[in-house]
């Protein structure tokens, strides 16, 4: 495993990813996002559907080229996946996809698919059955095909495949949203435990805030292609500062039996092909001021004019 | 189950369902009242969805159902399919979990909203279109007239679920069965759909059977809560009582398993 000596394991700066469709305007799915993940850290990336979470994840492992900006993994810039042999430093980025029904090859035995990962890492000592054991499945499953398993088991197999490649950075792109409620928390915890055990970083993307709260050390909130707030999970949860984060947390219904309807965030996510001027959240923001309509807040950790850093702390 | 204070719109008594000789429901009793939301909770595999499907006669092939599903003084279980067709889609409607698959991708919204309306109510094309636009306005789709000409893929997930609810409401049903209607949606969108369901129930006097595994959702909109386990209803009661002072150990274990403590300290 390649470990960076200094700095974070993953560093994303001003990343822009565009989707181009002939005859349609260019969609900036990720519009200047910044993000950092340290080794041994779990970062939860949350946001509504269509905010660019998945596109960001795909760009991180080279499935989608970046229009501008930088992605560094252990100091190496991430290049788009090609047919040639990949830089071994980049094979440390492994992804677990959303839908285990389509991410596993239905015509190959589970063991053979996990062996691909082992070969990537140059690991000849471990057998696929060993990896299956680590994700909590019986060793004998290696000889079976994906259709013989339930959704939760398949996702464990997908995790085993990613794990076999000895990842330094594990990315989970909504890895639990296709699973039953009872399997969700289990699989999320498993991903955290395995990443911690191997000292890898974990970027966990989900729209389910309660699960992210459970497993993430830090949380990053994304809105319309930008990261609008980052911070330690407990801090963000106890004191969300960006109005969007507040709205997200207020929308979670609490199971207290009081019959309180959760607060609704009016409006829809704007079209990323035509983002509003100024702050991207201002058309839906209850606290929008004049400056929000004109200038975009491009600072962190809270990208909101209400939480502008003091000029002294910037210099 | 104890006697109902109100007239129940839909009563399920001793419903047993077996699929391929394997019992999935072992005698389910439920009563859904007009103007009330009845929540049905439980883990996956506990038979929540099967109960909903049995009401509409949508059980998978090779399954056998017995017991009684009373609606409007008639037993839906013993009905021949042709008679049942007059009820389902018209008097009892259903909203499914995933609006991306429950709507037809190649038909316009208008077609999906008016087809069963014209069949069940026998209204003309122009009137059906007016009603469809009215329904879309009721579920708060912006620009309902223009929306009629569009296809499902042109809408976001939340908007699609609103359209699916409009489709279900097209024939003025008395009972709406919503099977995990917000599970595939974001929390912010979920809040809107829950408010919509609650509003429809209050304004139109709909009886809603809300199937969900999310006790937070349950707590937000349901009046009555039933908890299912292994094909049986283990506990039924008013929302506040079941969620705060559960009597059955299984309900307690469900509440204890929640990632967020039910103290409600997550409000900012």
UniProtKB/TrEMBL annotation, chain B:
<keyword id="KW-0547">Nucleotide-binding</keyword>
<dbReference type="InterPro" id="IPR050388">
    <property type="entry name" value="ABC_Ni/Peptide_Import"/>
</dbReference>
<dbReference type="InterPro" id="IPR003439">
    <property type="entry name" value="ABC_transporter-like_ATP-bd"/>
</dbReference>
<dbReference type="InterPro" id="IPR017871">
    <property type="entry name" value="ABC_transporter-like_CS"/>
</dbReference>
<comment type="similarity">
    <text>Belongs to the ABC transporter superfamily.</text>
</comment>
<dbReference type="InterPro" id="IPR003593">
    <property type="entry name" value="AAA+_ATPase"/>
</dbReference>
<keyword id="KW-0813">Transport</keyword>
<keyword id="KW-1003">Cell membrane</keyword>
<dbReference type="Pfam" id="PF08352">
    <property type="entry name" value="oligo_HPY"/>
</dbReference>
<keyword id="KW-0472">Membrane</keyword>
<dbReference type="InterPro" id="IPR027417">
    <property type="entry name" value="P-loop_NTPase"/>
</dbReference>
<dbReference type="GO" id="GO:0005524">
    <property type="term" value="F:ATP binding"/>
</dbReference>
<keyword id="KW-0067">ATP-binding</keyword>
<dbReference type="Pfam" id="PF00005">
    <property type="entry name" value="ABC_tran"/>
</dbReference>
<protein>
    <submittedName>
        <fullName>ABC transporter ATP-binding protein</fullName>
    </submittedName>
</protein>
<dbReference type="InterPro" id="IPR013563">
    <property type="entry name" value="Oligopep_ABC_C"/>
</dbReference>
<feature type="domain" description="ABC transporter">
    <location>
        <begin position="10"/>
        <end position="255"/>
    </location>
</feature>
